[in-house]
Amino acid sequence: MKKTARFVLLLSLAPLFAGAAILPTPKSEIPAGGSFRLTADAVLSHAPELERLADYLCGYLHFAEVSDSRSADGGVALVVDPSLGEEAYELTVRPDRIVIAGGDSGGVFNGIQTLFELLPSEIYAGRLRQTEEVAIPCVRISDAPKFHYRGMMLDVARTWIGIPAVKRYIDLFSHHKINKLHLHLADDEGWRIEILSHPELTEVGAWRGGDSPVQAVYGKWDEKYGGFFTQQELRELIDYAAVRNIEIIPEIDLPGHSRDIACVHPEIRCDYPHDTSPALGYDYRSAWCVAREENYGLLADILGEICRLFPSPYIHIGGDEVETDQWMQCPDCRALMRREGITEGMQLQGIFLSRVDSILRANGKLPATWNESVETGRLRRDGRVYGWADVKSCLKATAAGYETVVMPACHFYFDMRQTPREDGHDWAAVFDAEGCYAFDFDKYGFSADQQRRVVGLQGAFWSEAYVSHHPETPDYLDYMLFPRLCVLAEMAWSGKPKPWTEFRRELIDSHYERLAGMDVRFRLFPPKLRYEKGCFTATVDDGSEIWYTVDPDTAACRYTAPLRTDEPYRYAFHSRYRGARSPETAAEARYRLITPEVALTSSMRESAKAPFERVEQYRSFAWTTRACRSGDWFCFTFAQPIVCREIAVQTGNRQLPKAIFTTGRVEISYDDGIFEPAGELEKGSVVLRPDRPVRALRVTATTDGNGCPFVTLQPLRIKPER
Ligand code: TNX
C-alpha cells in the first residue's frame, strides 16, 4: 500500500523538475542515469566554515542529521574547493549522494540555489517535507558567473520599504544568484538611515507630510509618512544578506537630491535671498552648497558612520541630476569658482566630489557614483561608475577607463512601465522582460576593452510612484520586478547564451512555477487578442487562465470561448496564474480618445515654458508659475457641448501624483451654465462618466500647496460615446 502511494507521488512530481531549465543558465549541465532519492532520513554534512550555509539549507530542507565532519552516503555534502574560483560551483547528483562544491562560500550558496531548482517549487516556502521521498535525476552541473557584480537597486527613500520587505526581496534576489543590493537610503523625500551623531536626520527627516518640515510631494499630504532603519537593524540586514551571498552597498545621494536633509539642516543650502513664494514659503531647493566649509564636517560625521557600518569597499555618493542653478546664484559658490578659475556647475560638482572622496578614503572606502561624475573630470580612476542615464553614458565611462556597473534606464529601470497603458514611468523607455533581454554589449558597440571595464549589470527600482500603489502590499513591486529581474539574472550570470524565444519558453515552462512557489505576484505576458467579424478571440501560450470584463468597474468573468459582440470597446482581457497576473489588454477602440475644441482658463498664471495652449491642443501638460492655494481653479470650456462616455481629469504628472492639486473638487456645467458637483480628486485625478452633454468642467483646489513650486495639468482624456 505504502509503496503504491510513493510510486504515485514520484510520478506526479516528476514532470515538475525532470528536465526543468535552470535559470540563470549554467555553463554546463550533463545529465547522468538514475536518480538520488531525497528522504527525511537524509544527512547534511558540511565543511566547518560552512556552518551558516548549512543552517540556511536546513531552513528549506529537513535533515535527520547535520555534521561538520566527512560527508556520508545518502546525503547532501557542502564542500569548498578554492580551485573552482570565486562564486563558482559544481553540483553533482549521484544515486548515492549530492555534492555541492563551491570555490568559496558564495559558490556553495549558488550551488544550493541550483539544487533548489531541481526540486519541486514547494522548497521556496520551506514546505518541502520529505516524508515522501523526492527523486532528483542524476546530473553534473559546472557553473561560474560571467559577472561578479549582479545587482539590484531599491529606492527605499521615496517610498519607505521596511526590513521585512527588504529581507523578502533579498531572498528572492538571491534565489536568482543576484549578489549586490544597492540601497538608495536618502533622497529629496526621505532619510532612511539612523546617524547616531545626528539623530535629527531620522527623527525629523525620516518623515514627511503632516507637521513635518519636509512636505509631502507624492500625495499622502496630511498623513505623516515614513520610516527608517536603525544601525542595529542594518547590521542584522547586512548579515542576513551576507549569508545569502549578497553585499549591501549603501547610497546617500549627494550633492543634489538632498531636499530632505536640507529641510532638517537649512544651513547646508546656498546662502542667498531665495524666493520661496512660488512654493508658498517652502524652500524647494535640493542641493548642498559647495562653498560652505562646515558642510564637509557634517558629511564626515554622516559618511564616517556609514563607512564603519557597511563592510562594502564602496560607498555610493550619488551625483545625479544636480540643479546647479542654485550654485550659480550663490555668492560663496561664485567666489569659489573665481578662486578655482572655473565657470561651470559641473566643475563645481567636481570640487564637491573630491572633498567627499577624501572623506571616504580617510575611512578606508572608495566612491561609487552615478555617471555624471565622469563629466566632472574629478573622479579618480579607482572610483566606480554606475551608468544609468543611457547606453552612451556607459560607453563613455568604460572608454574613460572606469570600472562600470552597466544599468541604462532604457533596459534596466524596472520602474518603467511595461506596455504603454500600464503603470510606471516612461521617460527612458517602455519595456517588458523582452526589452530588458534586448540589451547587448556588441550591438551597442562596446569594444573588448570597454567590456573588460564592465564589472556587471544592475536593475533599479525607483519608488516615487510606488508610494501611491499600496506599498504595504508587495503586488506592484513584485509586478514591476518579475520577470524582468529573471532576465537581468540571466544576462548578468550567464551572458545571453539563448535567443529570446527559447529563454522565454524556459521562463514560462520551468520558472513560473518557481516564482509562484516563492509567492511572487509577477507579471504574465498579456493574452493575444483577435477581433474579426464581430467575434473576440483571446489566447495565451503559458497555460494561464483568461478573464475578461465588460465595461469598467464590472466583475471579471472567466473566458472559455470566443465572444460575439459588435461593441468591442466594452471588453478588456487579462490572464491569471496563481498569484501572477497579466496587464489588461483590449481592442484599440477601447482606448480611442476625441479632442473637441476647448479653452482653458485658470486663477493661476501659466509658465512660459509650458503654456496652457498645450493642454487646449491636447499636446502635452502645462505648468503654472506657483503652487495652488485652496480656491485656485482650472476651467475647461468646450466650443460645443460634448457627448462622451468618459472624461479623465488629471492634475500633476502622469503616473506620478506630484505637482497635483493635493485635494480638489470637480464640477460640470451642462447646458444651463450652472456648475454641479461631479466628483473629488484622488491623488490629483478623477474619471467622470457624464450622462448628458458637457459644456464646461471646473477643478478647484481645496488644500493650500503641493510641496512643489508649481502645478502641472494634463490634457483631458475624453472617450467617445461609443
Ligand atoms: C532618474 S536614476 C533618477 C531618479 C528617478 C528616476 C526615475 C537617477 C540616478 N536619477 O532620481 O527616481 O530617474 O526613473
Give keywords.
binds ligand TNX; 8-stranded parallel β-barrel; globular; 26% helix; 20 helices; disordered N terminus; alpha/beta; 7-stranded mixed sheet; 722 residues
Explain the overall architecture:
The chain is α/β, with parallel strands linked by helices and 722 residues long. Helices cover 26% and strands 25% of the residues. An eight-stranded parallel barrel has the order 8-9-13-14-15-16-17-18, surrounded by five helices. Helix 8 (294-309) packs across helix 11 (345-362). The radius of gyration is 28 Å and the shape is globular. Bound molecules: ligand TNX. Residues 320-321, 370, 388, 413, 415, 425, 462, 464 line the site of ligand TNX.
Report the C-alpha radius of gyration, rounded.
28 Å
Low-confidence stretches: 1-17
For the biggest β-sheet, the strand order reads 8-9-13-14-15-16-17-18
Silhouette: globular
Largest pleated sheet: 8 strands, parallel, barrel
Query: What are the distinct ligands in this entry?
Result: ligand TNX
Q: Whole-number average pLDDT?
A: 94
Percentage of β-strand residues: 25-35%
